[in-house]
Amino acid sequence: MDIKQLKYFRAIVSEGNITGAATRLFMTQPSLSQQLHLLENELGVKLVQRGSRRITVTEAGRLLNDRAGQILDLLNATALEVKELHEGYKGTLSIGTIASSGVTLLPSLIRDYHQQYPNINFQLLEGDTPRILDLLKNGIIEIGIVRAAFDAELYDWVDLPTEPMIAATSQKWSGGDYSQYISIKDLANKPLLLHRSNETMIIECCQRAGFQPNIICKGDDVRSLLVLANEAIGLAIVPKSALGLVPGNNIKYREIIDSTLEIKKAAVWLRQRFLSIAAKHFIDMLLLLKSNS
Q1: Among 119, 138, 226, 277, whose Cα sits 20 to 30 Å from the Cα of 199?
Q2: Residues sharing a CB contact under 8 Å with residue 157, sequence separation 6 or more, in sequence order
Q3: b/e map of 246-255 (b: 16 or more CB within 10 Å)?
C-alpha cells in the first residue's frame, strides 16, 4: 500500500464509481480497477462492492478512506512545514546576548523580526562575552550579541551602534548638579560601582584624566549596581542601555563626556558553521539596520 493507492481509493469513494474516478485521475478505467484489485489483495479484505452504476463502500473501506484522508492531510502538512522551515518561515532561532543588550537592544529587534516572521520562535540566553562565544562554539546558539572582542578569523559579524557610558548618581554624590552630562574628571574621589567587564576601560580613561578611580564595588550584573546606586552607596558607571532598568526615586542618569568611554558591540556567528534560514533572515535585518543608521 502506497500513497498513490490511497489517493486512488479516496477518489473512487469520492466519485462513487470507478469510471468517474478514472476520469478525475486522468487514468483509464482498467488501470484504476487493477490498482483497486491490488490494494484489496494486499489487505486481504473487500473495500467496495461493485454495482452496475455505483460502488458501495464496505466497513473496511470506510475505515481505510478515513485513515487515508488523515495520512494524506498529514503528508501535505508535513511537506508545507518542511518548505516553511527551509524558507525560514518556521522554526526556532537561538540567540545569546550580553545582559544589557538582552533588555534593551534585542526587544526591538525581535519585535521587528516577529512582524515579518510570526511563526519563528526564539530561545534567548544571557551571559558575558566569553560565555556567549562558548555557546556559539558548542552550537547551542546561532547568533551572539557580544562586546567587540572576539577572534575575527573564527567569526563573521555585524557591528552594532556604539553605546556611551552613563553615571547613575544619587543626590548624595551629585552635589545638587543633575545636568545631562558629567565630565570624567567629576568622578575623581567618588566611590564608583563598575561592571567587571568595563573595569579596564574605565580605569584607563580615569588615568588619562589624571586620577586613579576609587572603585568600591565590581559586579557582574548591571541591575545590582543600579540598586546600590539608588541606595547612595556610590556612582554606578553603566552602559546607556541600562538606563531605567531598575526603578528608583534616588537615581539620576548623566552621560559621561569622553569619546573613548563607550562600548562597542557586534552580532557574531561562526564563519564555518551552517546557519538556518531564520538566522540568515535575522542577519539580513541587522545589515539593513546598519545601512540605515
Answers
A1: 138
A2: 150, 266, 267, 268, 269
A3: beeeebbbbb
- Cross-strand pairs, 163: 263
User: 92-160+265-292 architecture in CATH?
Assistant: 3-Layer(aba) Sandwich (3.40)
Q: Which residues contact 167 (CB under 8 A, 6 or more apart)?
A: 182, 187, 235, 236, 237, 253, 254, 256
How far is 292 from 51, CA to CA, in rounded Å?
72
Q: Give the pLDDT confidence score for residue 98 in this predicted structure.
A: 83
| Cβ proximity of 159 and 145 under 8 Å | no
Range list for CATH 3.40.190.10 in the chain: 92-160+265-292, 163-263
Q: Name the strand (E) or helix (H) holding 202.
A: helix 199-208
Residues 254 and 210: beta-carbon distance below 8 Å: no
**Which parts of the chain sit beneath pLDDT 70?**
77, 80-81, 84-89, 100-104, 176, 178, 248, 259, 293
Q: Report the top-level CATH class of 163-263.
A: alpha beta
